[in-house]
Each structure stands twice: as structure tokens, then as C-alpha cells.
Amino acid sequence: MSESQAFKLPDVGEGLTEAEVVAWHVAVGDEVEINDVLVDIETAKSVVELPSPFAGVVEQILVDAGATADVGTPLIVIGDGTPTAPADATEPDEKPQVLVGPGPKEAAGRLRRLGATRSAAGGPSPAGSPGAVTDGAEGNRARTTPPVRMLARTLGVDLEALARPGALITAEDVERASAPSPEQPALLRQDEDPRETRIPVKGVRKATAEAMVRSAFTAPHVTEWLTVDVTRSMELVRRLKKDRAWHGVRVNPLLLVARAFVLAVRAYPEINASWDDSTHEIVRKDFVNLGIAAATPRGLLVPNIKDAHALRLPALADALEQLIETARAGRTQPGDLRGGTVTITNIGALGVDGGTPILNPGESAILAFGAVRRQPWVVDDEIQIREVAQLALSFDHRLVDGQLGSAVLVRTGEILADPSNAMLSA
Q: Which pLDDT score, from 0 to 100, does residue 116 have?
């Protein structure tokens, strides 16, 4: 007998209740070792790779790519390759079971050997395969899988109309049923307009939207602006790029802004706090976890550099580069998104001069760094062409009054206006 083990969707440490299966790295019949990556899942915050806790042969893949599963749902069955009965995809028992019909083990094994079970590349699951369900009391009514049920709801297809005795309804069946024929064009819902496209909001974009609404309506925001002559900072960037001692270190204006902001927060530690609504207490932080807002193909992420206050400029540059590259590659881990204290959003990289940023939930302040422009500026009573940028600081007015917020913003601007000593020695 096969000693098969079902790997269930774990809580990856962020209060996860569900996740979407993005892509499988294995297929039925593959041999895997412990810690081999099995699957990518997308949570509300990031894409996470799940390693295998078992060694053996992949016997079943229970949740298709594109489907959403609850924590505790079996995702995959790994055994020694001996044929076994399909695992129960809805009841996470330790012993795999057949969900629909008796299904002899020999038949299940034959189907697996023929490759009828859906693999990482995608394909229909056989009747009686893991995840198959019956929409009704009779065994020959609308037998399908949870992802196909979801697809049918999205496309407005009646599964009962597609039911055939003993046959499993596949995604291809649903798509064919939803496609218009030459004689009968597809009917639009009354609330649909052919010039509109509806895009489901899920994953990171859904979490971001919910977080921004929660932040905007729970924390009283105040935003202050400061226009700064950053000519010397830009000269420092150019000088360090040419310095052999800084070879291999990625130096850019955002790095200097990050350093200046951290130094300003250290100078006025009262701003580095959070509001505990359950106890009505201000929680002062003796560390700075610096969040960096990063635009990614999956939406806005705000990973943070842990203990940024302890990093000098070269180490901060390395941490910043790694954070941004990881975010853009879609590999930011949940731990990198938790515990931020203050954040920077580099809207200047988008060609924008300024804005009123919304606080990352649980944080006290966020600094927007606008585009650096060459423009006339008064220096020693003379008009010169200088490099100028706008800073905008939003803060939680429950924690930060105008005097404190202004002090942090002005100190950040002072360091950027004359950066050498503060940047390189502190």
C-alpha cells in the first residue's frame, strides 16, 4: 500500500485565511525531495513559494492553478508512487479518500498514469478526480470542480444545462457554453456596457484598496509640504557614482532621501510611533523599519528595511536595492511587509512633483519625494539655476502634532540641502 501524504495550504504567518494557487512547479509523476518548491501561492500581500515537506512522487494535484483555497485545504498528495485512491479535497482528513463515487484504486492509478489528472500545465481533471463535486443529490448532475464552478458563475453559465450522466464538466465545457455562436450572439447583462471591461479585484490590489480605505478613515491625516534645493545632494550622487570606493554600490537620489528621513526620525523619535486603538495608547518604537512603496505588476507593495536606523549609507544602499528588486520580481515575503514604522514613496520616479500620500496602516508618517527639477532659485540674493524637489509629509495627527511633523520635515530638507557630513558620518 502507498503511504501517501497530503500537503495542506499552511498559514504562512500573516493571518492568512485563503490564497490563490498561481503556478505549480511539479506535475503528477514527478519525484520531489524535501524543500523542493512545489507551488507559488498569492496571498493578500505577496507571492510565496511553498516547499515540499515530504519526499516522494507526486500522486495528485488537488487544486488547479488560478483557484483559491482556504488554509488547511489539501493541495497535493505525495507518496511512493504506488496507486492510491484520490484524496478528499474538501475534508482535510489525514487519510486520502474518494470524493465522488466508489472509484476503484486501479482505475484511479490508470488515470494518473495516462495523465488525465490536471497537471501544472493545465488540463481537465477526470471524473471522480480530487476536487470534483456534484451540484445536487444525484450522482449524474453537474459534476465538476470548485474552480470550474467559479468560472461558471463568472461567465453566467448554468452548470445544470451542461450536466451529462457520468461526465465531469470541465473548464473547456463552460468556456464553449459561454462563447457566442454566429446565429446567437452572447447576451449582455442589463448592467453591462460593451465599452466597459470589468476586472476582478483580488490579491494585492484588493488588500491595498482595503488598507487605504481603513487608513484614510481611521487615522486623521495631515500633510505638510517643503520645497528643497537638493543641488548638493545630486552632486553627491554624481560624485559617489564616480568614486572607486563605491564601485558596485547603487547610489541614487532615493538613497539619500531614505538616509535623510531616517536621520530626521532619529533626531525626533516621538514621530516613530503607532496608535493602539484597543488600549488608547501611543506605542513608541526604538527602531526604524523603513517602508519603501514599490509599484509592481501585482500592485503596490510596501516592504520595509528592518532596522534601517542601524545602517550606514553603503549598507542602506544594498538593502534598498535588494528590497526593490525582490518586490519587482514578485518574491517579497510576508515578513518583509510587516512591522514598518515610517514609509517613503518615490513619486518623483513617476514624473510627479508632489502629492498627499496616505499612511501605511499602523504607521505614523509617510514621506513623498517628488521629481527633481532644474529651475530658478535664489541663492545669496542672486537667481541661479538649481536642482529642486518637493517633499510632502503626511502624518497621523493623533500621534504627531504640527510642530513635531514640521520639525521632522524641515530636518529632512536640511540634510538634503547640505548632505555631506550627515550622510557619510552619522
A: 35
